[in-house]
Amino acid sequence: MNPWLLALSALLCVVGAMLLYLASPQQRLRARGPWPARHGWWPGSACALLSLGVVLRVLPPFEAISAWLVLLTLVLSIAPFLGAWRAAGRRRSGA
Prior knowledge:
single chain, about 100 residues, mainly alpha, 3 helices
């Protein structure tokens, strides 16, 4: 097992999940709305699928897909709370 490939896969998965969240019209991390405006799901999907491809090279298929889904779900579950926390900070500061 190569720890560098696992770290790369985890990083790509987190970046992919955050890009998917930022592409959502209901996201609150960016004050100006979703990013990018059109076809925003492409970069996040590409990063997430690349992450799956990397982790499949390191772990057996069942464990790789399970770990990938758990990390993707974890990041996508935490992202709305980070957005709400950031939006509340913007309201308090008056920005």
